[in-house]
Design brief:
The chain has eleven helices and no strands. It is mostly helical and about 250 residues long. Helix 1 runs parallel beside helix 4, helix 4 runs parallel beside helix 8 and helix 9 runs antiparallel to helix 10.
Length: about 250
C-alpha cells in the first residue's frame, strides 16, 4: 500500500516539476556563459532571479493540487490508496523547495570546483536513509514521517549549498537571503496558514474556485512581497506595452 501511494505521488511530482525544470534549463547556458566571460554581476542576477521565479512557478502549479489533492486523486484513481494524499502533498512541497537548487548548482558546475560541495551535498542527502530507518524502526512513526525527514534534510542541504557555493561564485550570502530566502519564506508561511485554515469541499465547484483563488492569492503575494520595486515597475511596463499593442 505504501509503495503504491509513493508511486502515485512520484508521478504527480514528475508532471509538475517538468515545467519548472524546463524554465531553469533555458537559463543554465546563460549562467555558464556569463561565468566564463567573467560577467559575474549578470550571472548573479540570473542565479537570484532564476531561483525566485522557479519557486513562484512551482507554487502556482503545486498549491492548487496540494489543497485539492483528495478530490484530484479521487477523480484520477477512483480508489485512492492509503497515504497517497499526504504523500502527494509532501512531495510537492519538497519539489518546490528543490526548485531553489537548480541555478545554484549550475553556477557551481560553471566554476568546475564541484568535488567538495558534491561530497557534502551527497552525505547530507544520504542521511535521509538512516534517519528514516531509525524513525520507522521505532514503530511509533507513520509512513509520512519519511517524507517529513526528506523535507527537513532537503532544507538543511539547501542551506549547505548556499553556504559553500555562493562564496565560490562571489555572490554575497546576505544578498541571496535578502533577495530570495526572506520574501519566499514570507510567501510560503502565508500559504501554509491558508492551507490549514481553508479546506475546500471535494467537488468540482470547490476545486475550480479554490484553484483560481489560490493562484490569484499567490500572484498577489508574489507582486507585493516577492518582487522588488524595479521588478514591479518592469512588469507594469510590459503589461502596458502588451495592452497597447493589442489595441493597435
Amino acid at each position: 500500500v505504501v509503495n503504491a501511494a509513493r508511486g502515485v505521488s512520484v508521478q504527480v511530482q514528475s508532471a509538475v516539476t517538468r515545467f519548472a525544470t524546463n524554465f531553469q534549463m533555458a537559463l543554465n547556458p546563460q549562467i555558464t556563459k556569463s561565468y566564463a566571460a567573467n560577467n559575474l554581476d549578470y550571472m548573479h542576477k540570473l542565479v537570484l532571479y532564476s531561483s525566485k521565479y522557479a519557486f513562484f512557478l512551482m507554487l502556482l502549479l503545486s498549491f492548487p493540487i496540494i489543497i485539492n489533492a483528495e478530490y484530484i486523486l479521487g477523480l484520477w484513481l477512483g480508489n485512492v490508496p492509503q497515504y497517497t494524499v499526504a504523500f502527494v502533498r509532501l512531495t510537492l512541497v519538497i519539489s518546490t523547495i528543490e526548485s531553489l537548487k537548480g541555478s545554484v548548482l549550475t553556477s557551481l558546475h560553471a566554476t568546475g570546483r564541484i568535488r567538495k560541495v558534491q561530497i557534502i551535498e551527497s552525505c547530507s542527502l544520504l542521511m535521509i536513509v538512516p534517519i528514516s530507518y531509525l524513525i520507522l524502526k521505532s514503530g511509533v512513526a507513520a509512513p509520512e514521517s519519511v517524507f517529513g525527514v526528506y523535507l527537513c534534510v532537503e532544507l538543511f542541504t539547501q542551506m549547505l549549498r548556499v553556504r559553500f557555493i555562493l562564496p565560490l561564485i562571489g555572490l554575497s550570502t546576505s544578498h541571496y537571503l535578502k533577495i530570495v530566502v526572506v520574501p519566499l519564506s514570507l510567501i510560503a508561511t502565508i500559504l501554509v496558514v491558508l492551507f490549514f485554515f481553508y479546506k475546500p469541499e471535494p467537488d468540482l465547484g470547490s476545486f475550480v474556485y479554490s484553484s483560481l483563488a489560490g493562484d490569484c492569492v499567490i500572484m498577489l503575494l508574489v507582486y507585493i512581497i516577492g518582487l522588488s520595486k524595479s521588478e514591479r515597475l518592469f512588469l507594469i511596463q510590459k503589461v502596458r506595452q502588451t495592452l497597447s499593442l493589442k489595441r493597435k
